[in-house]
Design brief:
heterodimer, A: alpha+beta, two-stranded antiparallel ribbon, 6 helices, 46% helix, B: alpha+beta, six-stranded mixed beta sheet, 4 helices
């Protein structure tokens, strides 16, 4: 058998790609779940990188936090989901970092741009290259993925 | 260690009858949905060399002859088990996913590593196909 690398096509998915698509499509909120997974994975990777940068071993960090080394090991494994905000903040502090948590409405400028173009409302809305927008009536009111966003300009 | 910022193409090894990693993901989704999504995110991440290192990817030590086998390791969401996907690099800056397993302990089973070595040998000998599955494109199609 010869090696063949089928490069992706922008329109036709292979049988295997369709299998993966079906797996994801069977969940109504697959994109949301992927996003949640990404956040948890990023936390573990950030913790690992920050500890490495600070030059501490898992054992040394565990001693500073008065927890077991196995806890540190678990928190640094991608996929872990049981973080407590207070502990994350403590770890960040001990490692010389800072924890930021922010919950905001989803703002996807590309989505807005495409939607407005679709509805031909672009004439009253100007999107700037840096992602900000301006609308002549000084008020932007849109609904994106179920979240209502009202913005005064 | 790989330099940061390099792009890799993630490919999936397959034969006419099976795609071991995809078969595994189908099983995983039925067992542990959270872990499934964490693995899919992991697969997306390893398109960048920034993540082709610990803690996302670790070397899978087999023996002195096989030193180029690695694994993507993700902790299960609710089941507290580890999901592992064996992978190998090619010279064309590709990461080929070989097979997967869910394991309770840190140690990989012989069955898993033997299969990974066998698939790795097929890939190296150009006796097995592999293809890219465009996850970004799939995600985009789901949004529509």
């Amino acid at each position: 058998m010869n090696k063949s690398l089928s490069k992706k096509s922008s329109t036709v998915l292979s049988n295997r790609a369709n299998r993966l698509r079906s797996l994801l499509a069977s969940d109504s909120d697959a994109i949301g779940q992927l996003y949640d997974a990404k956040i948890c994975n990023n936390i573990s990777i950030d913790l690992y990188n920050l500890r490495k940068q600070s030059g501490l071993t898992q054992k040394e960090l565990a001693e500073k936090l008065k927890v077991k080394q196995s806890n540190i090991s678990r928190w640094e494994k991608p996929g872990y989901q049981g973080y407590k905000v207070k502990m994350l903040s403590r770890i960040a502090r001990v490692l010389g970092g800072q924890l930021f948590i922010s919950i905001n409405p989803v703002v996807n400028f590309q989505y807005f741009r495409e939607t407005f173009e679709m509805h031909q409302e672009i004439s009253t809305t100007t999107f700037k290259p840096d992602g900000t927008w301006h609308r002549t009536d000084n008020r932007l009111k849109v609904s994106y993925e179920g979240v209502n966003i009202n913005a005064s300009l | 260690m790989l330099p940061m910022g390099l792009e890799f193409t993630v490919c999936w090894a397959f034969t006419e009858d099976e795609c071991p990693t995809l078969d595994y993901l189908e099983e995983l989704k039925a067992e542990d949905v959270d872990c499934f999504y964490a693995v899919v995110d992991g697969i997306e991440k390893i398109q960048s060399s920034d993540y082709l290192r610990e803690p996302t990817v670790k070397s899978l030590p087999i023996n002195k002859q096989v030193k180029d086998l690695f694994e993507l390791r993700v902790q299960g969401g609710s089941s507290k088990r580890y999901s592992r996907i064996a992978l190998v690099y090619t010279k064309a800056r590709e990461v080929v996913l070989l097979n997967g397993i869910t394991k309770k302990s840190n140690k990989a089973t012989k069955k898993f590593t033997d299969r990974a070595v066998k698939l790795r040998n097929h890939i190296k000998a150009e006796e097995m196909d592999y293809e890219q599955i465009p996850i970004e494109e799939i995600k985009h199609s789901l949004k529509q």
